[in-house]
């Protein structure tokens, strides 16, 4: 009898808790709805209509799903390695060769570059895509050159589409004037602008719909998973389909390895109509530097992207393991436009929510609800991973990356960077520059010219260090200037397997 009573009590408690949680959820949704309506009321009618359709409707759906989620996004026990045939080696794709009519394939393609990020982490104002990375060329210059070269070489018409954010749109559009006479059509569209929400109250921190003053901090672009909705909202999805485009190649604009690959394109175009591959994710082998990168798993009979933010704390070390999860997502994606339209119309693209906590300058804790573009892989038919060479992943996130791409390790041809044939090993050296090199301006001031790095394996630089002209670095080089000291590497110096520390000043006389 006692036993029965205990069970009944537990059941009632669970029921009451569920009912309480449901009421709380409903309360949060009602409060959010009221706050969003109040924000819309601060705009004129035309602006309010645009914000509602382009931003707030999508945000409300995301917020609703955020409130529904209980516990971790994945059940660790259900995670399996992807089946052998779901991740194809690049060589197998390449062995099919190229079609007779490459132009016909290219004419069904558009290139989308994710261009929402600022250069703030590298000490630059404005869009990151406008930072000079090689011979005075910016990321955007190199992208335009690559596509123009394709269009000219194959007499094709591949357009470039830039997904800007409210942070980058104005500056990017000003710069686009300079490409008017290039053989590449350029389209732009804006990703959504969502309200940051107070971590405690779960309500927007914005006081009005505008972006002026303190209110600028109240908004954020909701991650690149927003590409699906904002692409459709912009009208570009229908426009490109109307022009006969079948696929888009999506990548981060700061990944200099993400060029149009004709072999992958041919693989997509040569599939039978009933087995059309609707989504390809390029993955590459994980190294110690990539342990935080998202990986592909098999989950509930679907290929799925697993991001570190979704991993339960107890399994983070396992996720970072190079032995269990051998590959990671480069964010180079090939996506079918008709499939994208179908999924958007059905509203069946259930992208996992990434909750990104931030602390604003005044100390206020907020959260941003974001999604990742690659997470949609589970929604597309016949989705595939292709294990590509590391050369297709060449992101420039830090000044250490910038040093590599500016050096003689790479040669530049028609906007594309390729590893120099003079380098004996195809691997990239490991470069770690200290905090004195973080900002691009500081970085450039510390090199009279970029050193010869063809035979470099590892470089660590810490403290107040400068490099003279025509310095050569080979093997493992470690240069450490202690606090208060300065090291000037003299012009013409050749350092091979050396540790330099202490103080070395070279003064003009």
Summarize the structure in words.
UTP binds at residues 128, 191, 223, 254, 397. Its EC number is 2.7.7.9. Substrate binds at residue 224. Belongs to the UDPGP type 1 family. UTP--glucose-1-phosphate uridylyltransferase catalyzing the conversion of glucose-1-phosphate into UDP-glucose, a crucial precursor for the production of glycogen. It is built from 13 helices and 25 strands. Helix 1 runs antiparallel to helix 2. It has helices spanning 2-40, 45-68, 90-94, 102-106, 139-154, 169-176, 227-233, 236-242, 262-269, 316-320, 337-346, 399-406, 440-445, and strands at 87-89, 109-115, 132-134, 137-138, 160-164, 186-190, 194-195, 197-198, 219-220, 247-252, 279-285, 295-299, 302-306, 327-336, 354-359, 365-370, 384-387, 410-413, 416-419, 430-433, 456-462, 464-467, 472-481, 486-489, 494-502. The strands form 8 sheets. An 8-stranded mixed beta sheet has the order 1-17-11-14-10-2-5-6, sandwiched between helices. A 4-stranded parallel beta sheet has the order 20-21-23-25, covered by helices on one side. The model is unreliable at 1-10 (pLDDT under 50). With 509 residues, the chain is an alpha/beta fold. The protein starts with a helix and ends in a 7-residue tail after the last strand. The chain has 3 domains: 19-68; 76-392, Spore Coat Polysaccharide Biosynthesis Protein SpsA, Chain A (Alpha-Beta Complex); 399-501, 3 Solenoid (UDP N-Acetylglucosamine Acyltransferase, domain 1), CATH 2.160.10.10. The longest helix has 39 residues, at 2-40.
Distinctive features:
single chain, 509 residues, alpha/beta, Spore Coat Polysaccharide Biosynthesis Protein SpsA, Chain A, UDP N-Acetylglucosamine Acyltransferase, domain 1, 3 domains, 8-stranded mixed β-sheet, 4-stranded parallel β-sheet, 25 strands, UDPGP_trans, UTP:glucose-1-phosphate uridylyltransferase activity, transferase, coiled coil, EC 2.7.7.9
């Amino acid at each position: 009898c006692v036993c029965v009573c205990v069970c009944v009590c537990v059941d009632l408690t669970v029921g009451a808790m569920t009912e309480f949680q449901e009421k709380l959820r409903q309360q949060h949704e009602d409060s959010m709805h009221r706050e969003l309506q109040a924000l819309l009321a601060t705009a004129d009618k035309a602006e309010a209509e645009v914000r509602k359709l382009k931003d707030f409707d999508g945000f409300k759906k995301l917020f609703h799903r955020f409130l529904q989620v209980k516990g971790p996004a994945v059940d660790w026990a259900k995670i399996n390695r992807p089946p052998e045939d779901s991740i194809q080696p690049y060589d197998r794709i390449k062995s099919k060769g190229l079609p007779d009519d490459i132009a016909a394939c290219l004419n069904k393609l558009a290139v989308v570059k994710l261009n929402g990020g600022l250069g703030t982490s590298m000490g630059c104002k404005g869009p990151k895509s406008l930072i000079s990375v090689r011979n005075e060329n910016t990321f955007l210059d190199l992208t335009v050159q690559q596509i123009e070269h394709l269009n000219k070489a194959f007499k094709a018409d591949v357009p470039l589409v830039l997904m800007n954010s409210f942070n980058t749109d104005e500056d990017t559009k000003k710069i686009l004037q300079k490409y008017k006479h290039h053989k590449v059509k350029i389209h732009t569209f804006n990703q959504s602008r969502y309200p940051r929400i107070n971590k405690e109250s779960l309500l927007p921190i914005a006081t009005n719909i505008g972006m002026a003053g303190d209110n600028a901090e109240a908004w954020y672009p909701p991650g690149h998973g927003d590409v699906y909705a904002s692409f459709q909202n912009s009208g570009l999805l229908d426009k490109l389909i109307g022009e006969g485009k079948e696929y888009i190649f999506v990548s981060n604009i700061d990944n200099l390895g993400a060029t149009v690959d004709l072999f992958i394109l041919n693989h997509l175009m040569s599939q039978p109509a009933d087995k059309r591959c609707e989504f390809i994710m390029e993955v590459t082998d994980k190294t110690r530097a990539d342990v935080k990168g998202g990986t592909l798993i098999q989950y509930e009979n679907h290929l799925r992207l697993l991001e570190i933010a979704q991993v339960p704390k107890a399994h983070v070390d396992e996720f970072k393991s190079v032995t269990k999860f051998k590959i990671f997502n480069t964010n180079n994606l090939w996506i079918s436009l008709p499939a994208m339209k179908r999924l958007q119309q059905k509203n069946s693209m259930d992208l996992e929510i990434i909750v990104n906590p931030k602390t604003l300058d005044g100390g206020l804790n907020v959260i941003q609800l974001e999604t990742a573009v690659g997470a949609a892989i589970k929604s597309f038919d016949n989705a595939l991973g292709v294990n590509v060479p590391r050369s297709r992943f060449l992101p420039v996130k830090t000044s250490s990356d910038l040093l590599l791409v500016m050096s003689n390790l790479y040669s530049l041809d028609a906007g594309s960077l390729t590893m120099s044939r003079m380098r004996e090993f195809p691997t990239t050296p490991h470069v770690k520059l200290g905090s004195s090199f973080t900002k691009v301006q500081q970085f450039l001031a510390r090199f009279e010219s970029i050193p010869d790095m063809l035979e470099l394996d590892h470089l660590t630089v810490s403290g107040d260090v400068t490099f003279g002209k025509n310095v050569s670095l080979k093997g493992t080089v470690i240069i450490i200037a202690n606090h208060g000291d300065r090291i000037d590497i003299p012009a013409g110096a050749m350092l091979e397997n050396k540790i330099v520390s202490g103080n070395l000043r070279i003064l003009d006389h």
